[in-house]
Amino acid sequence: MGSLTGIFNGLLVSKIGIPPILATLGTMSLYTGLSYVITGGPAIPTTQLAFIGNGNVLGIPIPAIIFIVLALIFAVILNRTTYGFNLYMLGTNTTAARYSGINIDRVLIRTYWMAGLLAAIAGLVFVARVNTAKPDYGESFVLLSVLISVLGGVNINGGFGTISGLVLAVLSLQFLSTGLNMLMLDLSGSSGSTFFRQFAWGALLLIVMVANYYSEQRRQRRTT
């Protein structure tokens, strides 16, 4: 299902020309609504995948192994394959990529397909961790995913980003999350303490984007 929905997103963007942000937000609502129709709304308990979320191999948690393996695979894809080069080229300059002979539609569809596949894998790991499935479980991770990408050095305009940067961003936010959990325990008497993490994520996202903007402006002035 992750592959199919990812391909559908890619077709909307590449063949119909819908802006990516509108296409993905629209299909997110579509898929969530369809999931509610199928499940009826309540959370579905399951323990069939519990070994994935809570098991370990040689003392290493299986979710961590999945994360490391996927990070290595996509590091190779982005840096050692023609597709990875074409993807960077497409993000840097769509017009130049088109005139250089790159099949833009194929690159876009393949990219959205892999994004859908990764989202499905993440969903399975999450279900395995909490032993329940509900259509809106992933909504709380949308902002966090964007924050990790920006913090990891991914250019929101395309053309630049590294797997190593994303890994460091994930680790940094995990340490920050641990600190926020300790802080919220100290603020447990405050009615707003449970919403502090969302405030911190949003503030950090804005700070990083502003810092990246001024850094890019300085870089452009030096090159000119």
Give a structural overview.
The chain is mainly α. The chain has 2 domains: about 140 residues, no CATH class; about 90 residues, no CATH class. About 75% of the residues lie in helices and about 5% in strands. The strands form 2 sheets. The protein has a two-stranded antiparallel ribbon. A hairpin with a 2-residue loop joins strand 2 and strand 3. Helix 1 packs antiparallel against helix 2, helix 5 packs across helix 7 and helix 8 packs parallel to helix 10. The longest helix is centred in the last third of the chain and has 28 residues. It starts with a helix and ends with a helix. The model has no long low-confidence stretch (mean pLDDT about 80).
In short:
74% of the residues lie in helices and 4% in strands. By secondary structure, the chain is mostly helical.
Largest sheet: 2 strands, antiparallel
Count the DSSP helices: 10
Mean pLDDT: 82
This entry's quaternary arrangement is: single chain
Poorly predicted residue ranges: none
What percentage of residues falls in helices of 4 or more residues?
over 70%
**Helix/strand order:** HHEHEEHHHHEHHH
The general outline is: globular
Number of strands: 4
> Order of strands side by side in the largest beta sheet?
1-4
Radius of gyration: 20 Å
Helix/sheet category: mainly alpha
Task: Please report the distance between the alpha carbons of the first and last residues.
Answer: 48 Å
Q: Which percent range describes the beta-strand content?
A: under 5%
Number of domains: 2
